[in-house]
Structures are given as structure tokens and as C-alpha cells.
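Q: Could you fold this chain for me?
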Amino acid sequence: MARFLYSVTMSLDGFIAGPDGDMSWLAPHLGPNPEAEALVTRIGALLVGARTWGGDDPNRGTDKEGPFEGGYAGPQVVLTHHAPADPPAGTTFATDLATAVDLASAAAGDRYVNVLGADVARQLLDIGALDEVLTYVAPVLLGGGTRLFSSPGGREIRLERTHVTELPHATGLWFRVVR
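A: Sure. Below is the predicted structure, expressed as C-alpha cells.
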């Protein structure tokens, strides 16, 4: 059975994208990451939010463009209200969360569904479907942008730390969502 993992890099002040979705801040904080490289082999599908799917890529125009610096090439499910008429190969579009979860889970099999997008991750938390969170904390303060999680008036969700990774360019924190 697939597990849902939200993996992301954030600034020390809690932002995963700069103002207007800018991801250029991330480029200096990418680098060799054996943990992320090993994770790619354990991912069976991506569940991606519409803003993330159509958004900025710090590696745009290079051989590292795409998820996991171009290292992931499997199925993707994009949650959106505006699916294109001619979807790219390997990408399925879903207009509601339940369908997106079912499609991504079926595509992943017994591997991870890696979640890309803060809003999708929050929605999965809200319905109790997010299993793990892997956050790389980059040594930078952005001051604004898209928060790792934002749920004004939301509830407390407990996490259990399972692993910490020290890298020259970031610190990885892996958590299990406590149910």
C-alpha cells in the first residue's frame, strides 16, 4: 500500500517558495544529497498541486529541470480545476482530492506517493492521508512567500522525528505523522 510523503526544501523562516512562487532562491542550496537520490528510487508516483506543476523550477532550461533535479521520470497526478485538453505523457489530471489520492496511490503501488505542493500537503493532512514529511531546511531567510504549511485556525498535528540528515547546504528532518 502506498504511503504519502511530503518532501520539500524550506528556508529557516518557513517558506518553500519566495514571493510570487519564485524558486530561484533554492538553486544555491541544492547539491549532492544521497538521501534524496535514494528516495527517488522509492517513489512510485507524484501527487502535485497545480501551482507547483505549472510553477517556477530553479533548474529550468538545464539538464536538471523537473522533479528531484530531473531524477524522477515516473507517473504524476496533478490536482487542478483546469486540466489541459492534451496532457503530457505520464501525467494524469484530477479535479478533486479523493480522485487524485486514488490515482496516485494506484500508480505508486507499494512505494511512496511523493507530494509536491504546500496546499495539497495541507489538504492531505486535513483528511488524515499524509503519512510522512521530509523537510530540508536551507540556511537562508526569505522573509515572505509560500509557507511550508498554512492553516489559519487549524488544528495541532503531532509528528514523530524519525531521521535527521546533515548536509553542507541543508539539514534534513524526516517525520512520521502521528495518528
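A (continued): The radius of gyration is 15 Å.
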